[in-house]
Amino acid sequence: MTGLTEALAATSHNNDGPGALLRIVIVVGVVGAALLAWFLLRGYKQD
Fold it and tell me: This protein's superkingdom (predicted)?
């Protein structure tokens, strides 16, 4: 019985890895795009 529970725990733990990495990549991409847009658009400011 313990072998079955260990196998289930290992498979559920392995499914968490790519989701966390993908979430980090998406957040960094969105923040980078916002900073790039701010940097490019601040040159068009009319005084």
Answer: Bacteria
pTM of the model: 0.55
Tens-place pLDDT, residues 5-47? 666 565 555 556 678 889 999 999 999 999 999 999 998 776 6
- How far apart (Å, rounded) are the C-alpha atoms in residues 42 and 46? 9
Q: How many CA atoms lie within 13 A of 15 on its CB side?
A: 6
- The alpha carbon of residue 5 and the mean position of all alpha carbons in its chain are separated, in whole angstroms, by 30
d(Cα 2, Cα 9) in Å, to the nearest integer?
A: 10
Identify the three-state secondary structure at position 9. helix
